[in-house]
Backbone:
């Protein structure tokens, strides 16, 4: 109850104060990374991101995400692309991920920060353009603009001496078996990896951010993560990747997205979400093979492709 | 006449007996691989597939195709995606090809069969989703779901120790010249290669399956195959590939599809189909180069791309 | 005034004489490469192309472009795809570029000329098909058919002994610094590179061709070229490529296209075109990395992708 009364107060402040309204949009932009149109969730996600940057010895990541989200939302406001979408943080969440990804994969330099601002602004326009294409089928952009702009910048690095890629960390300790004890930490890492972090503490923070808005979605997120681990284990996936949650983060997003757009989670819907998670895991492995020659991360592409396909079917299933 | 009366009897049985109706759908799923909505054609295709598996010392292929078609059609029935399309075998033919391809390219193991069932079920959902996208332009899915799901699984193999790729057969005897004597057998092999088989007998069986439904389509199929060989020979394509019908199978499908959707085969239509066949041959060579680093087969992708483009034009030509 | 009266006379001749009308379409096809629906512009472009072929010791290029444009327009006339589009040269400009590209990248041989005719005819059908898809979003094809058909033929070369790729020229003299003196010549080379030429004289001819139709577009073209050079310099791009205008030609086309489709060039529009040019430069570098393993030129793909995205946004901006 207390949370609700605080939320109401915040709502009232926002309606009067343009500064508070802009802060609200910034926070919702963080929330929308996991489809939560909720400022409190967003605030906790933001804390998680700051913590994640700090814990991975890259505090620049948190600042990068903030710079990105602010640049994107200012630009979207100036061009008045879509008032309602802007208020819900729709023009900010791709910039948030782009900022984090560029700060994670590129060496820190003044050029990097210039690139982050540019990429964030461009992500706003790409979001608008893709929305126009996708509205034909009532589909949301999801994180496609983030994937496109990040891939473009990472692929452009060899052409430009001002940008350079961070040397990949050496892999963590070799793992010879996966026991039930690994299951929960790995699933939570899968949640953290949505924002490209590798920390259980951050994963738990993100789960709290989800739980603040919806317990059902939290449940589906963690179940999606566990299922992806199970599928990868069954087919003999690499234990290092499974333990780090790298098979899970796309499945988490698929699960959240499909349950958000479903009317009622009956057994047919659950089976249909399970199939989507299975396809997400295999699409991720396939994309990994495709992108290997370019040393390109798959990011959240498997989630986007599978969710688009499944949302198209969902429309038919819900029509009846 | 006798065939027609048998067909009528079968029709009557199907309207009463759900088991017969399901068998009818299974057979039509086989027929739809070459766009024939005809249970008898389907039955002959099924016999050809069983024979092809047997002749290539891989009897599992026939079983794989049956398992795939049955899984797919059960799933499509449970989710009641589109009653009419289901009855015509539209939800089964991609699974049929997926089953054959996975059994051809992967080592036999319990995981393979689990994968075939999964891939077939997923192909149903992908078919439904792609149909929703493509109906905007009145385009059919063709074999796109089969191509996508097969590529995803083949590309995923390096990530999973439970799946492994069959070692490619060493090429057949070296051929130094192509004479008129090679023309007919090679064209017939082109028909067999639609189902990934390399046997003239199987090719003849498939031609009979076509002829049962339409002589005109049979004529266009074999002509498409011959033309593809002619174009490849003219441009100096590899004789081994030409002789095996590997330049033909996509052209065969393009020819069948375009004549099926054309109103009247006048000379303008024939020229327009010829151009499509030429583009199919070059698209196939281009895709071969693109996919070589990934050791990925082109499957029927050239046919799908060219047919979609040409069907879009066809709508305009027929409008007048 | 004199030009206008000559234009009127030409208009009158065209309405009576089918031969003149066809010539008009041929010339407009050249003009449409840079979006100029103007026969006089087209004539100057044609002269530039002939000159460019001559200056680069490849006179076949000029002939190839003519053969291509004529073949394409005859085919479009025979199939009566779209009367109005045909008259404006819409079915010819992709063929024009395809002819130039194939004559530039492939060894001269009778097969090459056969391929140029075929590719040009196919480009007409691809133009028609893509238009049908894109009209859903009121988007033009731009040079997509040219890119697709040229890539297909270049990728198909390894499969066919009748076609072979020209050995790439060794790079020009090594450049150690870029001064203001380089800026104008390099920007003009960027204009010439739209038609794949590397000559300042040809670039100036093309600028005149633009100026005949619209001074504003000429200004945006050269500004786009200069901006692309600036961005590439700022990020430390390779000086050789920058000096040759290879970072500019896509930006030139983006600038021309976006200003053509904009209502009023206010500061918001100019910023939005600047962002498009920035994205064009980075997309070009990204595509270069992607296509390197296949030794495939990026052609005008970055321009097409960015222009499509930005034109989609433009519709929203102009609606208000």
Residues:
């Amino acid at each position: 109850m207390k949370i609700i009364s605080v939320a109401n107060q915040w709502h009232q402040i926002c309606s009067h104060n343009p500064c508070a309204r802009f802060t609200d949009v910034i926070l919702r932009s963080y929330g929308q990374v996991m489809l939560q149109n909720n400022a409190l969730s967003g605030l906790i996600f933001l804390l998680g991101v700051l913590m994640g940057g700090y814990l991975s010895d890259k505090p620049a990541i948190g600042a990068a995400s903030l710079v990105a989200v602010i640049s994107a939302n200012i630009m979207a406001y100036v061009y008045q692309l879509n008032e309602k979408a802007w208020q819900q943080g729709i023009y900010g969440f791709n910039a948030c991920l782009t900022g984090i990804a560029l700060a994670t994969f590129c060496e820190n330099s003044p050029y990097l920060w210039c690139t982050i601002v540019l990429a964030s602004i461009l992500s706003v326009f790409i979001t608008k353009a893709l929305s126009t294409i996708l509205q034909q089928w009532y589909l949301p952009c999801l994180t496609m603009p983030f994937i496109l702009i990040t891939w473009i910048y990472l692929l452009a690095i060899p052409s430009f001496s001002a940008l350079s890629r961070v040397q990949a960390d050496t892999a963590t300790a070799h793992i010879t078996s996966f026991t039930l004890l690994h299951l929960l930490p790995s699933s939570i890492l899968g949640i953290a990896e949505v924002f490209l972090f590798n920390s259980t503490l951050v994963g738990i923070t993100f789960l709290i951010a989800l739980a603040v808005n919806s317990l059902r979605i939290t449940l589906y997120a963690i179940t999606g993560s566990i299922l992806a681990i199970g599928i990868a284990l069954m087919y003999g996936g690499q234990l290092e990747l499974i333990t780090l949650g790298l098979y899970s983060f796309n499945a988490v997003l698929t699960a959240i997205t499909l349950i958000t757009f479903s009317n009622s989670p009956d057994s047919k819907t659950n089976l249909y979400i399970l199939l989507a998670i299975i396809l997400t895991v295999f699409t991720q492995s396939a994309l990994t093979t495709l992108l290997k020659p370019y040393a390109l991360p798959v990011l959240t592409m498997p989630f986007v492709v599978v969710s688009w396909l499944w949302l198209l079917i969902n429309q038919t299933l819900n029509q009846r």
In short: The domain at 172-320 of chain C is CATH 1.10.3430.10 (Ammonium transporter fold). The CA atoms of residues 288 and 298 of chain C lie 6 Å apart. Chain C has two domains: 10-163, 172-320. Chain C touches chain A at residues 136-137, 232, 234-238, 268, 272, 275, 278-279, 282-283, 285-290, 293, 308-310, 312-313, 315-317, 320 (CB under 8 Å).
